[in-house]
Amino acid sequence: xxxxxxxxxxxxxxxxxxxxxxxxxxxxxxxxxxxxxxxxxxxxxxxxxxxxxxxxxxxxxxxxxxxxxxxxxxxxxxxxxxxxxxxxxxxxxxxxxxxxxxxxxxxxxxxxxxxxxxxxxxxxxxxxxxxxxxxxxxxxxxxxxxxxxxxxxxxxxxxxxxxxxxxxxxxxxxxxxxxxxxxxxxxxxxxxxxxxxxxxxxxxxxxxxxxxxxxxxxxxxxxxxxxxxxxxxxxxxxxxxxxxxxxxxxxxxxxxxxxxxxxxxxxxxxxxxxxxxxxxxxxxxxxxxxxxxxxxxxxxxxxxxxxxxxxxxxxxxxxxxxxxxxxxxxxxxxxxxxxxxxxxxxxxxxxxxxxxxxxxxxxxxxxxxxxxxxxxxxxxxxxxxxxxxxxxxxxxxxxxxxxxxxxxxxxxxxxxxxxxxxxxxxxxxx
Length: 430
Ligand code: EPZ
What we know:
Blueprint: E1 3-7, E2 13-17, H1 22-31, E3 38-42, H2 48-59, E4 63-68, E5 71-75, E6 83-84, H3 86-91, H4 97-106, E7 108-112, H5 125-133, E8 137-141, E9 144-148, E10 156-158, H6 164-175, E11 180-184, H7 190-201, E12 205-207, E13 213-217, E14 226-228, H8 233-245, E15 249-253, H9 261-269, E16 273-276, E17 280-284, E18 293-295, H10 307-314, E19 320-324, H11 334-339, E20 344-348, E21 351-355, E22 364-366, H12 370-382, E23 386-390, H13 393-396, H14 402-408, E24 412-416, H15 419-424
Helix pairs in contact: 1-2, 1-4, 1-7, 4-6, 5-6, 6-7, 8-10, 8-12, 10-12
The structure holds ligand EPZ.
């Protein structure tokens, strides 16, 4: 299995280009099969999750033409199969977006239930509630969600919880339903807006994305489009936290600063200087880091996908901080690994009480999931000595050229396959 080997202590300095948003790209790729014409999408990140979804779409018959690492042409007219199998779903849970897309277009879809993951049980009850409200008969049988409708009729849907996935999936199904649909208590994440803009560029009629009430007037058909995915605010934020943890000076480029406001605000509270430019944000961490309080919330609150990275920074800040995880029930698994690097963190229910320590020390740790894995890399970059991060396949699901981008900022990090290679870098194995 691949690992990262990191020799910590170098401040990260310089500029890093941020790629397309993984979580916007996944939904947009799925939605692209809702027209029979060819759709061109660029600024997609070349990451495992995106490549796994493209494979799943090819498996059901969509024609996929990968123009280059970041551009793809998709033609949905050749879709023959409306069911997404277990293997595809196990590789990429966002295949569940094909449920909304296939139901919206073909009025029939069957997708394996994704099941839980390392951060929580990840239910789909709100997705199903929305599809049923639109008139679909939805059954869960043999480990799959089967949705079918003679026709879909617009409806008034209230989401009991703010859910990005349910908002997007229902928006897709409603885009080609008859009549008007209102989604109340909708998620407002930038990638929800991006998917709505994408669907509108195909001829859909969606208003209000980015607010908690989205209004959709169904249309008969959707047509071809050329679309560019928004920048990835989570990749950007991850590099911003890496700058803070290593006392560096990093400018993240190709970003929409507004999408990073909650992250910038917390880094300011923690003692960093933030400079916002048109399409870039600069983080300078020259002063000692200070404690603060964080609660993860739906957008525009502090993103849950940035929670592990924030905790790593607070773990070496002066004073005691608290991080409250209000979205997922099991998103502190990295704390045990961070403790092995010297962190002093106590988790009580969904709150982490973090007593800042002087610094981390290198250790051998294992990435429990995508964002926690990236957070452990940040800890290794700031640690004294050498850190080895196992299970980095999680990280490669959502970060393109992660180690290359970090190396360009001055990090000593290598991706290795064997223990022998670890020795080769003359790191004292810990
Ligand atoms: C998306 O997951 C992202 N994934 C997640 O990013 C992100 O953490 C999450 O949104 C929150 O921002 C993708 O976009 C592929 P939710 P999603 O539905 O849509 C509950 C990453 O690191 N819920 O907004 O699955 C759910 O259990 C990943 O890139 C229900 O109860 O998240 C959670 O507590 C990790 N019933 C809350 O809502 C449902 O039917 C928010 O989940 C659906 C969700």
